[in-house]
Amino acid sequence: MKKGYIFIILTALFYSTQEISGKFLASKGKMDPFQVMFIVFFIGAIILFPLAIKDIKSKNIEIDFNDLIYIGICGVLSATISMSMLQFAVTYTQASTSAVLFCTNSIFTVPFAYFILKEKVKKTTLISMAISLVGVVIIFQPAKVISGMNSSRDFIGILFAFGAAIVWSLYTVLSKKKINKYGGYVFNFIAFSFGVLALLLILIFTNRPIFHGVTTNNIIVLLYMGIFIKAIGYICYLGAVKETSAVTASTVFLIKPALATILSVVVLSEKIALSTIVGIVFIVLGSYINFSSNKKENVNNEKTVKV
């Protein structure tokens, strides 16, 4: 279980830079959202390819055709749909708003996990998520955001962020079924490949640029997103799902608003409001309650096994 917590922390660190990086590309590079996702997931797939091949050979993994299609669907859900919607979100509205709204995916994960995976939802998990959600709302300040929407662009961005959150939660739950069988490297490489293919088809049939617009000003950000946020970040995230549960792993997105806020101060020199600090406290408290509960349960299970 400790390994699962490490995966959660690492994932939160990498994912907290998603919207900041995306906003940079949207505002400075003027790159199309589908184009951005195609390039970064293509980079991620390249990074994962040798690792996936090594796992397939060393573990004698045989990929079933039905599983191949299943993982492919997961890849389309995450790379083609969810992440593209998130990139559209940061194009239409503020990065901080998109980050906080996307983190609500952990709420949607609970019913998906219950109905699809038949996972038991503990009372402490619901309590911790409720406390963390209060923190998210405090940071987000819905009334302030709604009153400040001076154009339809903000509303469109908010809808994209919510859509990305819902699709991501479904991907999280569905990936649980195959990640244990194939492992993170193989699963992610296949998923990335299908997602990249779907994105390429979208770019071709909608006559959007594929590599045009990539410059020295944005290539570093694209490489960072492809290597760290997509390749390494996805491996850590699915590792968290494997070592804990889909619901527990989704707490990454309740920790993320706090980390994203801190990083925005360091990277973008933004000021932290008092409400944000209060919200961060709630998020940390909620996450701590969930981690403590799982740790206690794990210790009790180990004692039972020994007896």
TrEMBL record:
Domain EamA: 3-140, 156-290
Keywords, ordered alphabetically: Membrane, Transmembrane, Transmembrane helix
Topological type in the membrane: Multi-pass membrane protein
SUPFAM superfamilies: Multidrug resistance efflux transporter EmrE
Entry's Gene Ontology cellular component terms: membrane
Family, per entry: Belongs to the EamA transporter family.
Protein name per the record: OrfY
Species of origin: Clostridium scatologenes
Higher taxonomy: Bacteria, Bacillati, Bacillota, Clostridia, Eubacteriales
